[in-house]
Design brief:
Elements lengths: L1 E8 L5 E3 L2 H4 L6 E5 L5 E5 H12 L4 H16 L2 E3 L6 E3 L2 H7 L4 E8 L1 E6 H13 L1 H10 L3
Antiparallel strand pairs: 1-7, 2-6, 3-4, 3-5, 4-8, 7-8
Amino acid sequence: MFIGEFQHTIDEKGRIAVPAKFRTRISGGAIITRGLDQCLFIFTNKDWENFAQKLINSPSSEARANSRAFGRLMFSGASDAKLDSQGRILIPDYLRIYAGLDKSAKIIGVYNRMEIWDERTWDKYRERTEGSSDEIAEKMADLGI
């Protein structure tokens, strides 16, 4: 499971160090792609397969249309990510542009994936979400979560 928040820098070649506690989970390779809310998602190969299967096996026709659209976004942006000898992965240019990544980034663990955020974007998102956490929790309780 991926959990926690980590501050990292992106070097001039577009590489970022993966937190040491996450490295063993992606030592066999991973997939990096566009995420939601202007971040990037990094999945283990196994979790990527599970995610992809859910997208392509949607039950209703409306959900299938949405799955196709979302799948196109996710699959077209996907790239293999391999750790180098120093525990870094290369973030392709088009993904750095999508996420607005420059130098300072946050890597956060979100259960079955890591997310990479521009530091300022993450701080704004986190502050906004923390400010409405009671309301969010109530809505989730209404869903039985």
